[in-house]
């Protein structure tokens, strides 16, 4: 009887251990379904803690630099780019054809920029490789087809495959951010997957998956959607007059879907310079507190990086001074201000932000909020 009881007790203990191990295994596997696990919670806490320490160690000028992405001249590092990196602590660089000739040259350039940045976290180095007419280095890279062409194929997997191919090409050259996919519905050219919101949503989600599989940061653009726009915002400010209900049912949908389903530390959202009269009669999206903070952050629940479109575009540069543009964007809720071309404009935006912060027009907590978002993403994705 005692032997039987002992065997029974051992059986119970073995069963308990089995179920405990199975439970732990199940907890760890939940991350595949997008749920927080013990490991991912700990990892997130470690990254949050490290980011807070890095931000706390930064000077105000270093923080402001992290909140900018700029363009540089030349195909190799030079005194001007070194000065911008070291004097203004710029946190991001965007490349254009003027910077790119061959893959090895670009790789060397990105390596030199990283080495010369002397910052506590690496640089974002970005480019626009959408496909179709918006590509760089056409003679050295296999350009992706336009998003319209991918959408017309009817095969959602094509969006994922091309995102992966593009990501691999960019990573090999030291590019860690791609300003794609275009999430606009029904644009008048080839940059959109479709004129149907459902189709755009499906293809954007697939492209996002492709970028994430290759661990490259991507950017959904141009929030809250420029498909209904009639004027090129590179040249002038224009307004979209659709009702909020229509925008909600159509233009917001691709953005909302990614925000709902994807880790916000894997991507950015780029806000447009168009005006949406049903949302904000006065300000373009990039300068609108309602659109960035109330709509995107609070209503949609987006917790990741918000970056502006290029501040040198006519839609905003014709109506504001550069020294005030960055201030208005950050006050509205943007984390990174992009200035792509002229050094004096980049310096004006930087100094405008720095002066506003010193005067208290932008609070220290507001700056730290943005810089922590930026540092967290860099810690997770950049070496």
Automatic annotation (TrEMBL):
Recorded catalytic activity of this chain's protein: Hydrolysis of terminal non-reducing N-acetyl-D-hexosamine residues in N-acetyl-beta-D-hexosaminides
Magnesium in keyword set: no
Domain Glycoside hydrolase family 3 N-terminal: start-end pairs: 60-377
GO molecular function, one term: beta-N-acetylhexosaminidase activity
Hydrolase among keywords: yes
Coiled coil ranges: none
Gene Ontology biological process terms in this record: carbohydrate metabolic process; peptidoglycan turnover
Pfam families: Glyco_hydro_3
Record EC number: 3.2.1.52
SUPFAM superfamilies in the record: (Trans)glycosidases (SSF51445)
Keywords: Glycosidase, Hydrolase
Family: Belongs to the glycosyl hydrolase 3 family.
UniProt protein name: beta-N-acetylhexosaminidase
Organism: Pectinatus brassicae
């Amino acid at each position: 009887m005692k032997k039987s009881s002992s065997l029974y007790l051992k059986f119970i203990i073995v069963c308990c251990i089995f179920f405990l191990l199975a439970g732990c295994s199940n907890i760890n596997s939940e991350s595949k379904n997008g749920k927080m696990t013990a490991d991912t919670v700990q990892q997130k806490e470690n990254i949050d803690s490290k980011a807070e320490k890095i931000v706390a160690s930064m000077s105000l000028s270093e923080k402001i630099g992290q909140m900018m992405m700029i363009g540089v001249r030349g195909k190799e590092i030079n005194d001007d780019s070194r000065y911008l990196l070291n004097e203004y602590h710029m946190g991001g660089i965007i490349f254009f054809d003027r910077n790119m000739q061959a893959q090895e040259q670009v790789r060397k350039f990105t390596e030199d920029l990283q080495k010369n940045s002397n910052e506590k976290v690496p640089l974002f180095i970005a480019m626009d490789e959408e496909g179709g007419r918006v590509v760089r280095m056409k003679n050295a890279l296999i350009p992706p087809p336009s998003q319209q062409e991918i959408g017309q194929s009817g095969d959602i997997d094509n969006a994922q495959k091309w995102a992966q191919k593009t990501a691999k090409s960019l990573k090999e050259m030291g590019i860690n951010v791609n300003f794609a996919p275009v999430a606009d519905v029904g644009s008048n050219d080839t940059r959109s997957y479709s004129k149907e919101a459902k189709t755009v949503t499906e293809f954007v989600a697939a492209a996002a998956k492709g970028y994430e599989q290759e661990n490259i940061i991507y950017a959904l653009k141009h929030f809250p959607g420029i498909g209904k726009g009639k004027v090129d915002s590179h040249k002038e400010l224009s307004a979209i007059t659709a009702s909020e209900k229509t925008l909600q049912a159509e233009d917001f949908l691709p953005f909302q879907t990614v925000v709902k389903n994807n880790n916000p530390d894997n991507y950015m959202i780029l806000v447009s310079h168009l005006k949406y009269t049903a949302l904000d009669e006065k300000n373009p999206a990039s300068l609108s507190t309602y659109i960035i903070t109330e709509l995107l952050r609070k209503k949609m629940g987006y917790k990741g990086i918000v970056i502006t479109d290029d501040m040198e575009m006519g839609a905003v540069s014709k109506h504001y001074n550069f020294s005030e543009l960055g201030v208005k964007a950050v006050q509205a809720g943007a984390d990174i201000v992009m200035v792509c071309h002229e050094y004096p404009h980049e310096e004006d935006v930087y100094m405008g932000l720095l002066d506003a912060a010193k005067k208290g027009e932008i609070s220290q907590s507001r700056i730290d909020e943005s810089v922590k978002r930026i540092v967290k993403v860099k810690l997770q994705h950049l070496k």
